[in-house]
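Sync notes, pocket subgroup
Present: LS, DG
LS reminded everyone that the earlier model was apo-only. Rerun requested with glyoxylic acid included. Inputs:
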Amino acid sequence: MNVSRSDKPRLLLTRRIPEPGYSLAHEVFTVTGGDEDRPLAREFLLQGISGVDALICLLTETVDGPVMDAAGGRLRVISNMAVGFDNIDVAAATARGILVTNTPGVLTDATADLAWALILGAARRVVEGDRLVREGLFEQWGPFLLLGRAVAGATLGIVGMGRIGQAVARRAVGFDMRVLYTRLHGPLSADEIPAGARWEYCPGLDELLSEADVVSLHVPLDSRTRHLIGARELGLMKPGSLLVNTSRGPVVDEAALVDALKAGRPGGAGLDVYEEEPRLAPGLAGLENVVLLPHLGSATVETRGRMAVMAVENASAAVRGEAAPHVVNPEALSRMMST
Ligand code: GLV
């Protein structure tokens, strides 16, 4: 694009984003911020947003009505470099005629792979084994040493059979697993189910929790899914079963999970996300039967690069009045027209 510096729209970048998105942002926009790889403190967000046309943010920043108002009326788009957008008050953006965009699709495989890393890591006690070897405690092979749980042939429960849930389920075909799934929009059609897959729609979450050997969560966080998995739901899980969460921490009542893991129901967990990131619920880090990762779902070089480019492309299309590819609140457009 041949745009002179003065004609370029203005962008606030809250934090450094990976290449090639970072360079693209500078090509398209006059950019403020984004030099450092750390979350932008709220006071700087409130200052920096003043007078910009676009905001590119990450899930480490809370973007609410007061932040939008601090922009001063020019702000056209809030482009989140993430598929989840629970850090943004979408209703407040819509009411102000501001588009909100996200980065779906490009992180589906990376997140599904990580869910599988947690399934296998928790089922086969990979982290405990690694610790034991490093600590010099591996004396010899033993018939009872770190026995885990079989994954092949087990039943996998997918809570939220969207893009990522389906990608996790596709990987289960190779493990010869039966898959039970819940889905907000009802059962998938036959042509959406891969050949050879045993995917069964579960109308109720309770049924899935009580039948699955591994439960993997793939719902977005909103008012319907906050604490979707609490003490009652954990109590329905089979003794020895596993809970994996690569979605958002608050989908699980983490304090209840600590109690449940202590009681062995579920028998283990693999977590990539936490209720109050980066803090952990008291007692969680002391449990042996849980694998803990620092929110790495989309953390591959390839995926993060694609997310950054997509975030810039979304912002760029929106400020030029073109159809931004991944708008989560298209109703903001009619609001924009009427103001
Ligand atoms: C990561 O958690 C994302 O929502 O992209």
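DG: The longest helix spans residues 301-319.
LS: The mean pLDDT is 96.
Action: DG to write up.
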